[in-house]
Amino acid sequence: MQSRVGSLVKLRNLLIASRNFLSFPKSLFPATSLLFAPATYSTICQAQEEGVGEYVRDQPKSSEEILKNWGCSDTDISKMFTRRPALRNADLDQLQFKLNILSGLGISASELVKIINCRPRFLSYRINHCFDERLEYFMRLFESREVLVRAIVKNPSLLTYDFHDKVKPAIALNEGMGLSTSDLTQILLSRPTLIPRTSFNDEKMEYIRKTRLSNHSTMYKYVVAIIGISRLETIRQKVTNLEKFGFSEDEIFGLLARSPLVLTLSIDKVQRNMTFIIGKMKLPAPVILENPFFLYTNLEAVLKPRVFIAEKMQEMGLDLQIKGPMMLTALRMTEKRFLKAFVNCHPKDVADELMEFYVSKGCEAIGRRLLQEELPSRISFLNIFCYQVFIFWTCMMSQFTCRYHYVTLGSILLIAALSFSVILYIVWGSINFL
């Protein structure tokens, strides 16, 4: 019995020892064992690492750098930052993405400047929303990429309008009015607000019917577009304003049928022009029905000065007079042609007196018109003259530079002097005009 108990005790001790042997303490095998130390290996070779580093260094670090890489000059970037200062801090990835879309359309740097000037927040909008569907739709409408780009530059919002809720319904509405694809193209180029502002109701439809224009008439598309984008209250006020001068409803809508842009003139402008035509020129009001240009002509820069100089010529008893049908012709002439036909044709003393009187009546408005028409011709002449002088002295330099080094310096100084003289001539001429 004792031997059996002793054997059981020995067996128990043996099991305890074996269990202690199998459960090793953690301190004997630390995580960072010297025998099995973990090793890390790179799958990128040294050349690849250098390439990645160069790629990171080549990444644009500012919106200015992105715009330069896209093709914008410093002047273009300055104009855009002036118009939209927040563009300096734009998200670089988003900016690059949007510029890639625009370049895919064929939009150039100069056109982007015009777009930002028209819509400063353009690059802050989502222009990639429904982009493929929108592009396909516009290509069917405009029929060429060049015309589409022109339309986008005139109205950048074509890329940001809600495509399904704004663009398609507005185009469908105008098509339902009988406008063809070519008509819509012309209207979208001339009236960029066609999409967001077009609406028709029974009263507007009645106005269109009163013009008695058919769908095939040249002016029909303009009447539809202008009435479509105008507010009803504005149309009523402008029609009432014309009625005050004695026009019947049929005469008013007949005038709109011949010259739809009359509806775009302000009430104040129509009142001032009509008052001068009836009160000072002593012409009957119906004269504008056949000659709508009376309403478009600038009152201060054209109508008043030319009517007053006609009276001055009559007072001076000159042979050449501006009367009757000649007055209608004179009012339609450009500034340069008018002065040549009725002022500069006289002897110098008479011409100077007439010119002084003419400018005094038109003041700054005439000076600006004269400068706009005369200065480009002066500049073009001076450009040709300077170019010829430059070619001449370039030939001289090529012949004598090798022997006489001072000739090169002298030629440069002469060209600089000529350029300075040209600038003075242009500035002095501008001052004299103003």
TrEMBL record:
- Membrane-spanning segments: 375-394, 406-428
| Source taxon at top rank | Eukaryota
Keyword Transit peptide part of the UniProt annotation: yes
Q: Which Pfam families match?
A: mTERF
Q: Name one GO biological process term.
A: DNA-templated transcription termination
Output the Gene Ontology terms for molecular function.
nucleic acid binding
**What UniProt keywords are attached to this protein's entry?**
Membrane, Transcription, Transcription regulation, Transcription termination, Transit peptide, Transmembrane, Transmembrane helix
Q: Which family does it belong to?
A: Belongs to the mTERF family.
Q: Indicate what this protein is called per its UniProt record.
A: Uncharacterized protein
Organism of this sequence: Prunus yedoensis var. nudiflora
Taxonomy of origin reads:
Eukaryota, Viridiplantae, Streptophyta, Embryophyta, Tracheophyta
